[in-house]
Amino acid sequence: MVTFGQLGKHGRLGNQMFQVASTIGIAKANGYDFAFPEWINHDAKERFGSTEDIDIGGWFLNWKEVPRLTTELPEHFINWGWHGLTHPDGVSYVGHMQSEKYFAHCADYIRNLFTFRDPVKINSYTAIHVRCGDYGSDYHPICTRDYYEQAMRAVPGPYIVFSDDADKAYEILRNLLDG
């Protein structure tokens, strides 16, 4: 059996989805069983700009069907990126397995696992996420104005902008949203 025992302690929702998908992909490629701890996100829930805590695990239709981990396993570290599917059984993976190559062979299974319980309502808005705060370093450079300009030419508006730094987002997107 394999797991990602530190699920919820290394990144937020997007990172956690990669951790789950990659662990399952490695397990399926090698014929291993897999299980996960209860899905927690930092303080057990994700907070979205209000006082309401949301159970992320409850978003997904089939999350409750995933087996739960009942024992601790020794850690096996996997460095950033793609490192093949051959990894040991009986371990808890730790690392940054952020490559779809880990689960491409079982993408339909993963897609089914991460299907929203309720269909997303289709609307005519496009969301733009300008992430600044924890990305303000050379390791994670902030996307440039040119990047957003190209994206906005490719995907029509109207736009809703989300950011952890409204002033910086305004500075980057100034005049792009008005035409």
Report a brief summary of the structure.
The protein has four helices and six strands.
Task: Provide an overview of this structure.
The chain is an alpha/beta fold and 179 residues long. The chain has 2 domains: 13-113, no CATH class; 126-173, no CATH class. The protein contains 4 helices and 6 strands; from the N terminus they run αββββαβαβα. The strands form 3 sheets. It has a two-stranded antiparallel ribbon with strand order 1-2. Strands 3-4 form a two-stranded parallel sheet. A two-stranded parallel ribbon has the order 5-6.
- How much of the sequence lies in strands comes to 5-15%
Low-confidence stretches: 41-54
Strand order of the largest sheet: 1-2
- The topology string of helices and strands comes to HEEEEHEHEH
The pLDDT mean sits at 76
Q: Calculate Rg over CA atoms.
A: 19 Å
List the helices and strands and how they pair.
Layout: H1 13-30, E1 46-47, E2 53-54, E3 75-78, E4 92-95, H2 107-113, E5 126-130, H3 145-154, E6 159-163, H4 166-173
Parallel strand pairs: 3-4, 5-6
Antiparallel strand pairs: 1-2
Search tags:
2 domains; two-stranded antiparallel sheet; 179 residues; two-stranded parallel sheet; alpha/beta
